[in-house]
Write a structure and sequence with these properties.
It is built from two helices and two strands; from the N terminus they run H-H-E-E. The protein has helices at 2-22, 27-55, and strands at 59-61, 67-69. The protein has a two-stranded antiparallel sheet with strand order 1-2. A hairpin with a 5-residue loop joins strand 1 (59-61) and strand 2.
Length: 102
């Protein structure tokens, strides 16, 4: 989520500075009119993208112990077809997320 949330949050800070410096908005105006959107848009955008990727099957391990929006392609899948499963060894099919990638 952080990889998506970071740029959205940075954009929110840019909008905040624009409102303060260029348009000289008051603290009260910013607090009531602008700030709710500056919190809601990054969170909704990041969580929305992550939930969409989760529903599409694109959340997989990246090989270093964390998960990200990528297809499932560990070393044992080298040279195999997408969707193949090594019987008795692994349950997750090779190439998971390739066909539904956004």
């Amino acid at each position: 989520i952080g990889g998506i949330l970071g740029p959205f949050h940075n954009a929110s800070l840019c909008v905040l500075l624009l409102a303060i410096v260029k348009y000289e908005k008051t603290d009260e105006y910013i607090r009531k009119k602008i700030e709710p959107f500056l919190h809601a848009v990054p969170l909704l955008g990041a969580f929305g993208a992550y939930i969409f990727a989760l529903l599409m099957g694109n959340i997989n391990t990246n090989g270093v112990g964390t998960c990200e929006m990528t297809f499932h392609s560990p070393p044992h899948c080298s040279g195999t077809e997408n969707g193949s499963v090594t019987e008795g060894l692994f349950d997750i099919p090779c190439g998971r997320g390739n066909e539904k990638a956004a």
